[in-house]
Structures are given as C-alpha cells and as structure tokens.
Amino acid sequence: MGYKFAHVKTELPGPKAKEILERRKQYVPKGISNGIPTFVEKAQGAILTDVDGNTYIDFAGAIGTINVGHCTPEVVEALHDQVDKYIHTGFNVMMYEPYIELAERLAKLAPGDHEKQVMFLNSGAEAVENAVKIARKYTKRQGVVVFSRGFHGRTLLTMSMTSKVKPYKFEFGPFAPEIYKAPYHYAYRRPEGMSVEQYDEHVLNEFKNFLLGDVAPETIAAVVMEPVQGEGGFIVPSKKFVQGVAELCKQYGIVFVADEIQTGFSRTGKYFAVEHFDVVPDLITISKSMGAGLPISGVIGRKEIMEMSNPGELGGTYSGSPLGCRAALAVLDVIEKYNLNERGRVIGEKVMERFAKLAEKYDIIGDVRGLGAMCAMEFVKDKQTKEPNKEVVGTIVNEANKRGLITLSAGLYGNVLRVLMPLVITDEQLEEGLDILEESIAAATSALQVH
After folding, report:
1. Whether pLDDT at 269 is above 60
2. HSE (side-chain half, CA atoms, 13 Å) at 206
3. What is the distance between the alpha carbons of residues 352 and 447, in angstroms, rounded to a whole number?
4. Where in the chain is the domain with CATH 3.40.640.10?
5. CA angle at residue 438 from 436 to 442, to 5 degrees?
6. What does the record give as EC number (predicted)?
7. What is the H or E stretch that residue 179 is in?
8. Cα dihedral angle (88, 90, 91, 96), rounded to 10 degrees?
9. CB 58 within 8 A of CB 46
10. d(Cα 245, Cα 243) in Å, to the nearest integer?
11. Bridge-based pairing state of the strands 255-259 and 220-225
12. Cα end-to-end distance, the chain, whole Å
C-alpha cells in the first residue's frame, strides 16, 4: 500500500545504513540497544528521514522526548540565539537568568498553591536520585518505596528502584539498600472474579499491609510513583489508588514524589499527569519532553523541603545548562501557543478509538488503555488466560518499521505496544500511522497463523 508520508524504498538497513552499522558494531558496545536498524539524516515535526532517503512517521518520539516535535522552529531559534551568547558557565560558577526564568515558570505551572522551588539536572535518573536525596535530607529517614513494574533509571540507585531485571539489572548488582517495592494498581491483571471497585479496595489494602509487613512507615523518606507507568506498560492506576497512597504518605510524614519524566509536558493532556488524579505531590521529577531533545531534567518541590539542603549539596557541572534551559523555555512557549494539552487529549481520543476497534477485531489484543496521548495495547496469546505474547509485538514493530512507522514495545513481559507520537503530528499523519499499525498487526497475525 502506498502512503503519503511514510515511504521505505530500500531494505532495512539500506546501503548507507549498512555501512554505518558495521562501524557501530566495531566501535559501540552492543549493550547500548537500538530499535530500527538505520540512522537518521533529518527530522521535522513527526517525520524522520534516514540516510538512505526513507521516511517514517514517528510514533516513538525518542521514547517520549519529542512532545513538541522534532526541530520545532521556536526551539531551534532559541538554541541558535543562546549559542551566539554563551554555551556554558556552570550555574555554580557564574549563574545565568534562563535557569531562574525556567524555575519560576515551572513553579507556577506545577500543581498546588504552596510555595515551590526548582532545581535542574541533566537526565531523568539524576532527577530521581536528587528527589531521593532531598527527601532523605528533609525527613532524616532512609527508606524509599517504589512500585512493581516501575522504571526510574539506570544508575545504581535508580536501577535499584526499577523493577524489570532483564535488561536493566541482570548481573549489575549489588544494588542500593533501603529500597522497597510495593504492589501497583493494574486493573487488567486483577484477580479473577474481582470487580474493578473491589480491586481498588484490595490493592489499597495491600499497600497498607505492605507498610506493616515490609517496612515501617516511620523509616520511609519517600514514596516514588509514576502517575502512569511508562516502561512498565502504560499502566493507568485508579484515582482512588493514587489518592489513597498520597493520603497515607501525608499521614506518616512521607514525601510523595510523582515521577513525571515520561508523563509530563502535555503527554496525557495536562502539563503533569498527576493532575488527573487530583493529587498534589511534594516533589515532581521532570525530564524527557521538557527539553525537546536537549538533555535537561529537574525536581520541582515544596519550598520547605527543597530548602533543607545546604550550598554544594545539590547540582552538578552541566546541571540545568543554558542550552537546556532555553530549549525548555521554548517548549513551554510552544505548548501554550499551540494548546498542546488539548491536542494531547484529542490525539488520545483518536488513538483509543482505533485501538478499541482493533481489540474487537483481533483476539491477540487483551487490553487497550491510556491517558491522553499516552496509549497502549497489551497483546496476549489467549484472552482468557491473558498469557503474555511478546513475540507478536516484536513482529508488529518490525512490520511497522518496514512500512515506515516507528513504534515501541514496553511492559514487564515485553508484550505491550505503546505510542508516543509528537503532539504536533497532523491529523493526516496520525491517521496514516494508525493505518500502518493496523496493517502491521494484520501481517503479524497472518504470520502467526502460518506458523
């Protein structure tokens, strides 16, 4: 089938990509994974062009990093302007105003009418690490509670906080101490015969029992929760669960941290996903789409918590770089200018409508779920047993790549297909991408029947 935006005219990898791939194999360790076996030449909006001239619709967005699109003009212009002035002075040597301006804007945008302060770093993992440091400093406690299937990074501490053993943790231990994993709300895989309402009560009681049987609440500095689990499979918890956990944190003086690294900056139809749950976190970690591809992250928090650390106890050489700050300021301008919160909601409705139709058509789709434009399908071998079907997801991703669509898998079992398209994607590009995805599912299903 011919498509308007997606056009793959070579095998993958193409001739030029093959040459670069050989160099990659020689000089770059295989431990650094890659998706589609080709190399980008140009990117604009929601379209990628590789070195062999193939074009792709991007439903991955650099794993949720490109909500405002590739090479958004406002971001590019801000970066050119900044490069001509100064590239880096180190905020802890000579400060610069973009850092202050960005902190001010984010403090005002974050949920809650309390006073807030903001610090900046380089990566999502650094943001999580610093949120834990800040919480420990404030509470004078050491314990950290995270949730099953959660992902928080690849550094020693954040790897310890992450659930999936392979590929993130296997043979990389020993791990950081005082990390405790609590059960997370996962309605699709609730006990058989239990209603959603009963499950809400059940999983909250499990969390309360966890605080009795696994770790004493008086020793917990922070509970770190993804409002929607990313790598874990785009699992959307109930409002009752999130509110219940937050309330228990308040009761025991525990710092409640919302990890918004993948969910933030309009992905779910709001600046922060936690806003959907009517919960005000004590700390929020941010990164990914915050910088439109520039490495920058941050922690937004209650002023009384953030101020407990002394000079020199937080920060780093490149933390909150001028380029990162300018990119992030431009991102906020773009979100406001094009109303990307509303756009995220509209895209989510279109995607979920198509996913629901696909679920009716194909028995291998066990569940469709999402919040705003953070949407996924969970694939199973049997709808009754819900046995995970990782193999078919791998086939679908490959079939999509061959047709000019970039998408991603996720989930503890690797059986979830997730979409993270730039929110500036046009309706026409979105529909074409969904058509390719549907065609890829059909092809993968046929391949399964043949085998």
Report:
1. yes
2. 16
3. 25
4. 74-337
5. 115
6. 2.6.1.19, 2.6.1.22
7. strand 179-182
8. -30
9. yes
10. 6
11. parallel
12. 24
- Express each pLDDT in 192-235 by its tens digit: 999 999 999 999 999 999 999 999 999 999 999 999 999 999 99
Please name the residues in contact with 271: beta carbons below 8 A apart, sequence gap of 6 or more: 109, 110, 264, 265, 335, 341
Each residue's pLDDT tens digit, 95-140? 999 999 999 999 999 999 999 999 999 999 999 999 999 999 999 9
Q: What is the CATH number of domain 74-337?
A: 3.40.640.10
**For residues 215 and 444, what is the distance between their CA atoms, to the nearest angstrom?**
45
Q: CB–CB of 295/134 below 8 Å?
A: no
Q: Which residues touch 403 (CB under 8 Å, ≥6 apart)?
A: 1, 3, 6, 8, 436, 439, 440
Q: Residue 64 and residue 344: Cα distance in Å, rounded?
A: 13
The two tokens of residue 129 are 């690490």
For the beta carbon of residue 167, count every other beta carbon within 10 angstroms: 10
Three-class SS state of 228: coil
Among 153, 111, 432, CA closest to 283: 111
| Cα(326)–Cα(102) distance, integer angstroms | 8
Q: Report d(CA 448, CA 59) in Å as an integer.
A: 24
Q: Which of 50, 48, 111 is nearest to 293 (CA)?
A: 48
Amino acid, single-letter form, for residue 107: A
Q: CA angle, 420 as apex, 416 and 422 as ends, to 5°?
A: 165
Half-sphere exposure of residue 438: CA atoms within 13 angstroms, side-chain side: 18
- For tokens 């895989």, the residue is 189
Beta-sheet pairing, 283-286 with 297-302: antiparallel
Amino acid 450: pLDDT: 53
Quote the pLDDT of residue 2: 79
What pLDDT band is residue 170 in, cutting at 50, 70 and 90? confident
Looking at 218-266, which runs of residues are DSSP E strands? 220-225, 255-259
Q: State the pTM of this model.
A: 0.97
